[in-house]
Design brief:
mainly alpha; 3% strand; two-stranded antiparallel ribbon; 279 residues; single chain
């Protein structure tokens, strides 16, 4: 089999898989290591960049693969993907539509879906809020009313209260505060309204970010997992079909092997810190 870069549709798909895989793994690891008000805000931006890019490319791999599978391996035209821009929700819902024709039961990402807020955030970041700081510096009228990191704190708190009872949150916060008996008064940071930030509020924000992230990551992966399962099914069926030419070119990469993090669960996301070199 010829693995020369760009030599076939197979290799083009394979390279896209490597890009999507690496971007998602990097996004997860950066998110695990990021926290607010600790001079590592860049890790948030790196995570948002990588997750939005990785998810977008994964969804477009899925759309191209399904199109080729359903059309005797003919490739779609250029506008088939470019019409979707960077909108992750549009691409996800298009994936749901095409794979549901093959027996999947993938619900649309709408206001009733538990991951809609998360995907909307990543989609908005991919389309416009990644330029938020530069837009403000140049007086652009495209500035979003809420900063991406402020929006992320709100999403994190939403996930925390969705998955952990308030009584447990309050007990863990008291325990967290007790580790820092000197954390009183104001810090040199500003809160999201531009006022001096209390030390106890800084500790609260850091707790929220740290405690919620495995649930956020797990929700992202579990939402995408049905699409991965359909990709795996298509590649196995096509490549291993009894009528397949075993001496010819393999039509599709083995998607099940290329995205192993789809087999992870919440306990793994709570425990593992290093993802880039895990697989």
């Amino acid at each position: 089999m010829n693995f020369l870069y760009g030599s076939s549709e197979f290799n083009d798909l394979l390279q896209e898989c490597y890009l999507a895989q690496s971007s998602i793994l990097s996004g997860i690891e950066f998110l695990v290591k990021a926290n607010i008000y600790d001079n590592k805000d860049g890790l948030f931006y790196s995570s948002f960049f990588n997750l939005s890019i990785g998810v977008e490319r994964f969804l477009k791999i899925a759309l191209v693969t399904e199109y080729m599978y359903s059309n005797n391996f003919r490739k779609p035209n250029y506008k088939y993907l470019t019409s979707k821009n960077h909108n992750l929700i549009t691409s996800f819902n298009d994936c749901a539509d095409v794979f549901n024709k093959h027996g999947a039961e993938i619900p649309h990402l709408d206001e009733t879906h538990q991951a809609q807020e998360l995907f909307n955030f990543l989609s908005t970041y991919a389309e416009k809020t990644r330029y938020q700081n530069l837009n403000k510096l140049t007086n652009s009228n495209k500035t979003d009313p809420i900063h991406p990191i402020h929006a992320w704190v709100e999403i994190s708190e939403s996930y925390l209260r969705k998955y952990i009872k308030n009584e447990k949150i309050n007990a863990e916060l008291l325990k967290h505060y007790s580790k820092y008996p000197m954390a009183t008064g104001f810090t040199y940071h500003l809160d999201f309204n531009g006022s001096p930030l209390l030390a106890i509020d800084l500790l609260m924000y850091q707790y929220i970010i740290k405690k919620s992230r495995p649930y956020i990551i797990n929700d992202l992966i579990q939402t995408l997992k049905p699409i991965h399962q359909m990709l795996n099914k298509i590649s196995l069926e096509t490549n291993n079909d009894p009528n397949a030419d075993l001496n010819g070119a393999v039509p599709f990469p083995y998607y099940g092997d290329l995205f192993p993090f789809f087999f992870a669960d919440i306990e793994l996301f709570k425990r593992v810190k290093n993802w880039i070199h895990r697989y």
